[in-house]
Amino acid sequence: MMKKYTLLLLILTFALSPMYAQTKWKETPKGSFNLVENQGGQTLGYSPMSGVKILTVNGLAFKDLNKNGKLDAFEDWRLPYDQRSKDLASKLSIEEIAGLMLYSSHQSIPARAGGYFAGTYNGKPFKTGETDPTELTDQQKEFLKKDHLRHVLVTTVQSPEIAAQWNNKLQAFCESVGFGIPANNSSDPRHGTRAKAEFDAAAGGEISMWPSPLGMAATFDPTLIEKFGKIAADEYRALGITTALSPQVDIATEPRWGRFNGTFGESPLLSAAMGQAYCDGFQSSVWGAKSVNAMVKHWPGGGSGEAGRDAHYANGKFAVYPGNNFDAHLIPFTQGAFKLKGQTKMASAVMPYYTISWNQDKKYHENVANNYNKYIITDLLRNKYGYDGVVCTDWNVTKLHTSMDSFLDGKSWGVENLSLGELHYKALMAGVDQYGGVNDMKPILEAYQLGVKEHGEAKIRARMEQSAVRLLRNIFRVGVFENPYLNPEETKAIVGKPEYMKAGYEAQLKSVVLLKNQAKALPVTSKKTVYVPKRFSPAGRNFLGVETPATTEYPVNIDIVQKYYNVTDNADEADFALVFIQNPTATIGYDKEDLKKGGNGYIPISLQYGDYTATDAREKSIAGGDPLENFTDRGYKNKSTKTANVTDAQLVTETKAKMKGKPVVVSVNASNPMVFAEIEKDASSILVSFGVQDQAILDIVSGKAEPSALLPMQMPADMKTVEKQAEDVPYDMTCHKDSEGNSYDFGFGMNWKGVINDARKTMYRK
Fold first, then answer.
1. How many other β-carbons are positioned within 10 Å of the β-carbon of residue 619?
2. Which of 2, 33, 206, 730 has its CA 20 to 30 A from that of 369?
3. Is Amino-acid biosynthesis one of the keywords UniProt gives this record (predicted)?
């Protein structure tokens, strides 16, 4: 009897044991990976080739990522993200933590054969037809395994399906080494438009196309950008992207700034509302497999660069505050991205800008770049505003400075004398968690050794482990520890699907501003004859130094125009003209030719087409200083500059003369405020767009859609008001007044009835 009882007890013990409980999961092969579905729990994905096995605990399935045969806390998807993050961080070596703190340089899929995005495959460059574009490059394999890097910045992809297949190989590789930490892939904004592409409501595309952030701001509609965030997040996740290096919520109080187009304009409150909606859309209402981490940028605001110069360049390293308005630049963060309506609560990551926020360090009194400024990051961001997400430097911050005018130069502003290890250490102790554009862990290990010398091993280990917890938490939150794998067919169906293309196109229509409509020249509803003059584009160089040749061609898809109107090259035959131009193309505010002539190299940035001499500029610069310069005055008073596309203004004037009193409709694709005085008098109607398809302009011109957008920034009357305004203050310019008596001020816009006067006009102007 006792033997039977003992046997029964043994059977019951095994049956009730966690490892022998009734199985509540099923496994399905999916080609390169297996899918494990837990009943009432998380779905797991893993590669059979990675060495990972499935553990059964209480009937549920878990991935044994570190391959030790037992369930660790970080592998238990039932536990809170913080607990899992702390458990894994405590297990990592300093080398593995250093790897987490790396954020890769730009990775193109497939890698280009040469140039900035180059890579090799088994020692050879990519060759179409021979190289598999879904394979990892030699460089990627090295930084993933040797340097333990897990944050990968993805740029161009050959197709969505190839991106999905590459992601699966990347994740399988990561799963096969160390603790199996998955890659957290990221992207800069990738939903811009191809102007000449035709929209077909029934057709899909490579990815949905939306107006620029400035165009989104022109709608004055946060619900629209939250919708964009949800759609973009769905497309990102289908591409294997789990972090968005956006939104850019800097308030663009300096109209000459080269990054104006990436902002939501000059209003702190509009930028806050748009930033909040953007992050809520991307991160979703709760963390999970639909979420994309939002990395809001650029703390504490980079929109007040002196004289409009940008801090990608050494000549633009200083943000200045002549209006004593520093606190207003924090509003999009503190009242927007850090106060989300959804349960994710805050943007999960923050990127400081390159700039030195001149004389704003109230505690340590350092004029160093924000990435190195302990007051800016620890005292303000961390302590005052309670932010405990990831702080990631902008790209190339911790590289050495060698040039005054190179986009790819290192940007260690204010600390240019430090070594690579010292740069990483200073940023770490200022409160930074991660280094953008760094593939090599050696400088971080050097920083660790500097910390050991100054603080002891325990303290510096704790500091780096703190960053590891933050970084891991963002990877856990988006669910890729459970399943980082994609079905390429599902990717193909999601990215650029017709529903998403339609939503993006409708947003484009809502982003176009009608500034002028003399004698109600618009809309032109019947199929009349239109004259579209060809536009001259001068030769130039892009930001990477690649030359672009001069062209003279139609600035619009003429095949699309012909679906709306009869097209002629003879103005005498036309009923009206449609002129497509760009806003004045500014320089970076620095010219080596000026140096050769004995100057300091600094020249004006102009917002007008005609030649400009800065007679009203300030006598001396507010800020200055660089190891490559032997002076601190960056002033440019009485110097002159030319605008590359002066021919755009000439095109409007010439077309006006050719049309002999017939309507001239001008469509301006704008990236910055501009001086309209040169062209407004020659235009019957003016439309301003911010990165839309040609077809959207034609839908408005023809009356298929009615304009409803408002200016998210002021349009200056002249360059004198631009020179006299304070770089850090919004709404402080005298605005252009047109022939109809309308002032092109913040919040101005028209529809077919006339000037729009709805609640949007005043609600964000504070």
1. 8
2. 730
3. no
